Amino acid sequence: MDNQKASFVPVTQPYLPPLAEFTPYLEQIWSNKWVTNDGPFHHQLEKALCEHLGVEHISLFSNGTIALITALQALEISGEVITTPFSFVATTHALHWNGIKPVFVDIDPVSMNLDPARIEAAITPQTKAILPVHVYGNPCEVEAIERIAAKHGLRVVYDAAHAFGVQRDGQSILRAGDMSVLSFHGTKIFHTFEGGAIVCRDAETKQRIDRLKNFGIVDELTVGAAGLNGKMNEVQAAFGMLQLKHVDYALAARARIDSRYREALGGVRGLKLHEIASNNTRNHAYFPIRVTPEFPISRDALFEQFRARHIAVRRYFYPLISEFVPYRDLPSASRENLPVASEVSSEVLCLPMYTMLEAVEQERIIEIILSCAAEAKAA
């Protein structure tokens, strides 16, 4: 294998349109002298996102974690919430900051999402909600989850951080559940540097969310709830308006990258590529592979091969949330309770996937995997 040093390739990278395109937006903000607190761009972006995503009500936030914390507050969730251990830690942190006990349930080995078949066994009299994650932008089995929720009188809040623009049976996946929460972090397909949003069902709920993200303020003289400060500022919102103009380009570029990976790696023994059901759209937010025991070297050994060549692949999600200090002592956090999640976490590797990934860089990535397979076999 070629050990020659090469330029660093990140696992992800924000797409940034030409700076000249953003200048008029900044000039407008300076002219308005309105930099935060429900400014003109804030309202424009909410309207534009509703139209683009096919939803009726959306509330913008400074980041996705604050949005998720607020969604749980808006629904007055308490007690226990069933969730997945296979996600970014912010999913469970949002429960912790609301004084809610997370109850981890195992995942499906194919979708890597919360397994509906395992949810009911985890329900107790203290269970108030289900918090699934559309992992890598792959929709959960929303019909099955919501049948269970309806049967037991539970709320459903979807962590849709990866699921911008994703549809299921021709409808936005963000319409599922009581609420869906998006992340607009710089690593996402659509981003506002930092940012996030809550999608909800009705105007009354949106009003409650909007108040909660602004300290609970009702009017000049009234604070109706112990809210926090989660507002999106005008610079973020303006950048979002610009990003929306480029999101189709970003999606098309990611689709090409995804297609090339699948063409080159689909037949490699010991690798499992992430698949989604035919009734779901794919937004190519990530490109995870599973390095199974049939591959000639381990996932961690392959990880080190990439790092030695200055390519930042990521073991995402490893470790499981249930293995982190704040949560590992929970009864539901035991590996015996989470055999599939534990196995997937030990095998998963996310390859670089971002809009401006160059073809020559992608070929380097593919060649490393193919060379590892071939050399290990030869040895």
Question: Can you walk me through this structure?
Answer:
The chain is α/β, with parallel strands linked by helices. The protein has two domains: 224 residues, Aspartate Aminotransferase, domain 2 (3-Layer(aba) Sandwich); 132 residues, Alpha-Beta Complex (Aspartate Aminotransferase, domain 1). It has ten helices and 14 strands. The strands form four sheets. Strands 1-9-8-5-4-2-3 form a seven-stranded mixed sheet, with helices on both faces. It has a three-stranded antiparallel sheet with strand order 12-13-14. Strands 6-7 form a two-stranded antiparallel ribbon. Helix 3 packs across helix 4. The relative contact order is 0.17. One of its GO terms (molecular function) is dTDP-4-amino-4,6-dideoxy-D-glucose transaminase activity.
How much is the average pLDDT?
Answer: 96
> Which fold name is given in CATH as the topology of the largest domain?
Aspartate Aminotransferase, domain 2
Question: Which of globular, elongated, flat, extended, rod-shaped describes the shape?
Answer: globular
Q: Quickly name the level 1 CATH class of the largest domain.
A: Alpha Beta
Percent helix among the residues? 25-40%
Radius of gyration: 21 Å
SSE pattern, N- to C-terminal: HHEHEHEEHEEEEEHEEHEEHHEH
CATH architecture of the largest domain: 3-Layer(aba) Sandwich
Low-confidence stretches: 1-5
Quaternary structure type: single chain
Counting structural domains, the number is: 2
**Largest sheet, order of strands side by side?**
1-9-8-5-4-2-3
Distance between the termini: 13 Å
Output the structural class: alpha/beta
Name the beta content range: 5-15%
Q: What is the number of helices?
A: 10
Family: Belongs to the DegT/DnrJ/EryC1 family.
Keywords: Aminotransferase, Pyridoxal phosphate, Transferase
Active site: 188 (proton acceptor)
Enzyme class: transferase
